[in-house]
Design goal:
By secondary structure, the chain is of the alpha+beta class. 31% of the residues lie in helices and 27% in strands. Keywords: Kelch repeat, Repeat.
Length: 120
């Protein structure tokens, strides 16, 4: 990761990336392998948490598996990855909540004839 941006150095690079809104992270990851590994590592999220960088997003779902997020400060909509679930979960009652940068969706999975609570 020391090769992220040679000219300004790793620390200044991390501070700059940490201050960007999260919706930019997909674009950053597409720049090169180093940036992709950085985004996937979760290091930026940990730094943001340590430095109390907070973004308030609103999550919406009109489809059992598809979620969208809205960043009201930057007025940006984002499609979130589809959830990989079974049919039992898709059609069960669900509750959702945001915890930090995670969207938790809680419902029932069907394992054979047994219904179990599941968090995605």
């Amino acid at each position: 990761m020391s090769s992220l941006i040679h000219v300004i150095g790793r620390d200044l690079t991390m501070k700059s990336l940490m201050s960007l809104p999260r919706y930019n992270y997909a674009r950053i990851a597409s720049l090169n392998r180093s940036f992709c590994e950085l985004i996937r590592s979760g290091e930026l999220y940990r730094l943001r948490s340590t430095h109390q960088v907070i973004e308030h997003w609103v999550y919406f779902s009109c489809d059992p598996l598809k979620w969208e997020a809205f960043d009201p400060v930057n007025e940006k909509w984002m499609n979130l990855p589809m959830m990989d679930t079974d049919l039992g979960f898709q059609f069960s009652d669900k509750e959702s909540m945001a915890v930090g940068t995670d969207l938790l969706v809680i419902g029932n999975d069907m394992l054979g004839r047994v219904s179990t609570s599941t968090v995605y």
